[in-house]
Amino acid sequence: VLVGFNNGDGRMVVEQGATLNVEGSLNGLDQTFAIGGSPLGSNGVGRMNVFGAVNAFDTDSVVGGRLRGIGTVEVTGGVWHTDESLVIAQDGADGLLTISNGGTVTTGLQTYVGHSGRTNDFVDVAGRGELSITNGTLTTGATATIGSAENAFGEVDMAGANAAWNIAGFLFVGEFGIGNLHVRNSSNVHVQNDSFISVGDNEALLNITTFGSFLNDGSMYVGGGSSSAGGPGQLLVQSDGELVVGGCLKIWNTGTLTLDGGTIITDCFEAEPGATLNLDAGRLVINGGPFNIPLDFRFGGTDPLDPPEIILLDGTIGSFNDFSLAGG
């Protein structure tokens, strides 16, 4: 099923109570359910509204599928399942997926938001992938990536008490492209493995704010991967946002952590020399593991009546150089 490709403009509506089943591949391609451009043709504009049920068997699902394609999918109270991967914006296309009104989207494999750009006539065309969840759930069966390739851009906005993203594998925010993830307004994200904020050279941001909740079962690396530094990654926890890390929270020398009125709970904490650590307000709780901060860091924001707290539970404090007290 190809909706809007080869300069076409198409729209598909799956009404409440209706079911669309898409199965198999075409001409050996496994991305043959595409909304707005596809591997078979570019420059298309495609839209899909899901009020009922859509099932994609033995194929990926693509929103914005090829150079200058534009794909938009709204899952409004409906259900969209794909056996394999969900790709939002690849090969220089733009893609937008919105989940609202209790809608549900599930993938058997990966989720990509801003998968890849494309070089056309020696000019890089950056694809832009966007995911918005205001009231509904996205369940990813494997790894999730926001900003996958070098010239790709991905942004995810979680906003609402009933907005949830469950990720069975790893999470990359800015793998090699630019990636942003906002978890706000009581929404929640659950990652069952490690999370990485800016593995490549591009900027990446994880922003947890206004009672947003982020549960990370594994470790979290800001400004790099598990073994080496990467790009300028930022972790911002503010305004009653909460981050829980089951493993270690590591800030590379290219990373920045800002805690401003939120809560971070982690089993251990490590910051490399050169990292930026701003503890302006809120609580940092180290639950049993080491607290290693070999760097200069800021402790205290502009409000002396709202100081930050560092709480060490049965752990050890590593060596560190110095810190500055702000706000008087």
Radius of gyration: 21 Å
Task: Work out the helicity level.
Answer: under 10%
What is the makeup of the main sheet?
Answer: 34 strands, parallel
Count every helix, treating DSSP H or I runs of 4 or more residues as helices: 0
Shape: elongated
**Beta-strand content bin:** over 45%
Low-confidence stretches: 319-328
Mean pLDDT: 88
Structural class: mainly beta
Distance between the termini: 63 Å
What is the number of E strands?
36
Nutshell version of this structure?
With 328 residues, this protein is an all-beta fold.
Keywords for this entry:
328 residues, mainly beta, two-stranded antiparallel sheet, 36 strands, elongated, disordered C terminus
Topology overview:
Elements: E1 2-3, E2 9-14, E3 19-23, E4 33-35, E5 45-50, E6 53-57, E7 61-63, E8 70-76, E9 79-82, E10 86-88, E11 94-100, E12 103-107, E13 111-113, E14 118-120, E15 123-125, E16 127-133, E17 136-140, E18 144-146, E19 152-159, E20 163-167, E21 171-173, E22 178-184, E23 188-191, E24 195-197, E25 204-208, E26 213-216, E27 220-222, E28 233-238, E29 242-251, E30 255-271, E31 276-287, E32 290-292, E33 296-299, E34 308-313, E35 316-317, E36 322-325
Parallel strand pairs: 1-4, 2-5, 3-6, 4-7, 5-8, 6-9, 7-10, 8-11, 9-12, 10-13, 11-16, 12-17, 13-18, 16-19, 17-20, 18-21, 19-22, 20-23, 21-24, 22-25, 23-26, 24-27, 25-28, 26-29, 27-29, 28-30, 29-30, 30-31, 30-32, 31-33, 31-34, 32-35, 33-36
Antiparallel strand pairs: 14-15
